[in-house]
Design goal:
Length: 166
Amino acid sequence: MITVRRSGASDAPALVALAEQVAREGGGWILTTDSWRSVGEERRYLRAARRHPDACVLVAEVDGQVVARLSLARDPHPASRHVADLGVMVAEHHRHQGIGTRLLEEAVEWARSAGISKLELHVFPWNEPALRLYESFGFEREGYRKEHYARDGGYIDAILMAYRVT
């Protein structure tokens, strides 16, 4: 059974382990390829996100084990406060089981309650499973950002996608 809930500081060790596991995969699914935040830094980040009305970190658990996260943050600029950026990661052995969809559904509910009308994310062009997930959920491609991120001594592209919260 999949449980989705808001994260707490006690999730820091599991979330750091998840990020490090995903970073080590051969697919290059996330920006970091070497190290994530320390457990202490992650704990501080989670506490801050929990207190801040414009941010949210959700976790998905299977049998009590954290297997995925989704982070949301509202754009701070007054002209784009209706937009929130999100990022998702799911443990390799828990993909293709509906966990990403469940997290996105909860993200939409949080966005509605926060008065956000647009969710945005970046996807690497080679991450076809993520592209399929987001497009099946209703995200649309809005742009292609060439050499947008610095990683491993070079620059990589990103696809900008957005979802209209109704």
